[in-house]
Design goal:
Helices cover 26% and strands 28% of the residues. It has ten helices and 22 strands. A hairpin with a 2-residue loop joins strand 8 and strand 9.
C-alpha cells in the first residue's frame, strides 16, 4: 500500500501511436480513470471515451500538433462529472501558481469577503494592530487596488483602509516571506477559565499533529471543563496528520478503513500513534509527545470544511463529540491522490474510499448535531454565532 504523504505517481507518455500531444494526454486520462478510480465499475468507459473523442475533435480537429493546453479547461470540467466530489485536474500553470503563491511575499492576512478572519503572528499586519473582524474598505499599492490576501513579488508597502467599531482606520502594511504558511498553523487559547479553544486551519503542513498535541498539553494544564475544536474553512490535507491528531482525543482501536480497488487498509490508534494494516503489513507513525484530552470536545464546521477535516469530524462524532455549524463540503467519502501526467499536469483522482472499521462507507459530508449558519461578516460586529452556540453547549 502506498503511503498517503508524498504520494505522486509519475506516468510517462503512452507512445507515438497517438496523433498529438493533446490526444496522448487524453489517452492517459482515460486509462487512469478507468483503471484506478475506486468506483471505476460505475463509470461507463465507452461513454467517457466518446466524450473525450468529441472534445478532441472540437478543440483540435485533425491538427497533429494540437497542444495539451487546448484541452485543459475541458478536462477540468469533465473531471467534475466523475462519481465523487474529490477528483480534480490541475494544469502545469495551476501547479506553478500553487508553488509561486507559497513562496511569494504576502501580508499573512486571511480574508472572508471584506472581513479579516485571521492575521499571521509576527507579520506587519499583526504588529500594527490589524485584527480579526476588521472590515477592509480599500487596499492600494502605489495607487493601484490590490487584494490583501494576494501574493506579491516584493515587499513594497500596502495602504489599507479599515472600518473598526464604526470608525475608519488606515494602516501601512509591509508584505513578508513565509507568512501564508503561518496562516496554516494551529493556534490555541482559553476563551474563559472553563473553555479552551483550538483552531486547526489545515492538515496540509507536516508536523501539524505534533504541534496540536503540544497545544493540547498546554491547554490541559489550565484545567478547562471543555474544548472547542474549530475546523471551519479547513479544506483538509494529509490524512495521517488528521489521524495523529485524533489520537489525542479517541481511545485506542480501529477508526477507519481505506478501500481501493485492490486492497483495504485499516487505521487504528495505538498509544498516541497510528497503526496502518494492509494484509500482513503493518506501518506505525506517532508524534514525539502524545497527549490524551480528558474533557468534552465540541467540533465547529462550515460548508468549506472538507476532506481530512471531514474525516476527523466524522470519527469524533462517532466517538460522542457534538458538531456545531453547517453541513460540510461533501468530500468525506473519498481520498483523491495525485497522478502526474506526461505534460506535467496532475490528475487528483479518487482512488480510495473512506469507510468505518466495519466497512460501511463514510457519508458524503458531516451533518452537524446543532446546525448554525456561519456568517463571517458578523465578526465585524463582534459576533460569532457558531462559536457562541458551542460555548453554550459546553456550559450545559
Amino acid at each position: 500500500m502506498v503511503t498517503l504523504r508524498f504520494l505522486c505517481l509519475t506516468i510517462f507518455a503512452l507512445g507515438s501511436a497517438l496523433a498529438s500531444p493533446a490526444s496522448a494526454l487524453v489517452g492517459q486520462y482515460l486509462e487512469f480513470v478507468t483503471k484506478y478510480h475506486v468506483d471505476a465499475d460505475s463509470i461507463n468507459a465507452s461513454t467517457l471515451r466518446a466524450q473525450l473523442e468529441a472534445m478532441l475533435t472540437q478543440r483540435c480537429g485533425k491538427d497533429a500538433s494540437c497542444p495539451t493546453t487546448a484541452i485543459y479547461s475541458d478536462l477540468k470540467a469533465l473531471t467534475k462529472t466523475l462519481p465523487d466530489a474529490s477528483s480534480s485536474f490541475l494544469s502545469p500553470i495551476d501547479l506553478r501558481q500553487l508553488v509561486t503563491s507559497a513562496q511569494s511575499y504576502s501580508l499573512g492576512v486571511e480574508l472572508r469577503g471584506e472581513i479579516v478572519y485571521r492575521v499571521a503572528p509576527d507579520s506587519s499586519a499583526a504588529q500594527l494592530g490589524l485584527r480579526r473582524g476588521d472590515q477592509v474598505s480599500a487596499a492600494t499599492r502605489e495607487g493601484v487596488s490590490v487584494n490583501l490576501g494576494s501574493s506579491f513579488s516584493d515587499a513594497k508597502p500596502i495602504t489599507v483602509r479599515l472600518e473598526r467599531d464604526g470608525k475608519p482606520l488606515e494602516l501601512s502594511l509591509t508584505p513578508g516571506l513565509g507568512l501564508q504558511a503561518l496562516l496554516l498553523t494551529p493556534e490555541a487559547k482559553l476563551l474563559d477559565a472553563s473553555t479552551a479553544y483550538l483552531r486547526i486551519p489545515s492538515f496540509r503542513v507536516p508536523g501539524t499533529a505534533s504541534r496540536i498535541h503540544s497545544l493540547l498539553s498546554s491547554l490541559q494544564s489550565r484545567n478547562p471543563k471543555g474544548l472547542i475544536v474549530d475546523l471551519r474553512f479547513n479544506t483538509g490535507g494529509y490524512l495521517d496528520e488528521a489521524l495523529l491528531t485524533l489520537a489525542g482525543f479517541q481511545p485506542d482501536g480501529a477508526v477507519m478503513q481505506l478501500q481501493s480497488r485492490s486492497a483495504t487498509s485499516t487505521y487504528s490508534l495505538r498509544a498516541g500513534g497510528v497503526e496502518t494494516i494492509v494484509g500482513e503489513s503493518i506501518k506505525r507513525s506517532a508524534v514525539s509527545f502524545a497527549v490524551r484530552w480528558q474533557t468534552q470536545a465540541v467540533i465547529l464546521m462550515n460548508s468549506s470544511s472538507s476532506s481530512a477535516s471531514e474525516v476527523f469530524a466524522l470519527i469524533m462524532k462517532r466517538g460522542g463529540s457534538s458538531i456545531v455549524g453547517e453541513p460540510s463540503a461533501g468530500r468525506a467519502r473519498y481520498a483523491a491522490l495525485p497522478i502526474k501526467l506526461s505534460d506535467g499536469s496532475e490528475l487528483r483522482l479518487a482512488v480510495t474510499r473512506n469507510a468505518y472499521p466495519n466497512g460501511d462507507p463514510f457519508p458524503q459530508n458531516v451533518t452537524p448535531t446543532e446546525q448554525v449558519k456561519d456568517d463571517p461578516t458578523l465578526l465585524n460586529k463582534g459576533a460569532d454565532p457558531v462559536l457562541e452556540a458551542a460555548v453554550k453547549l459546553l456550559e450545559k
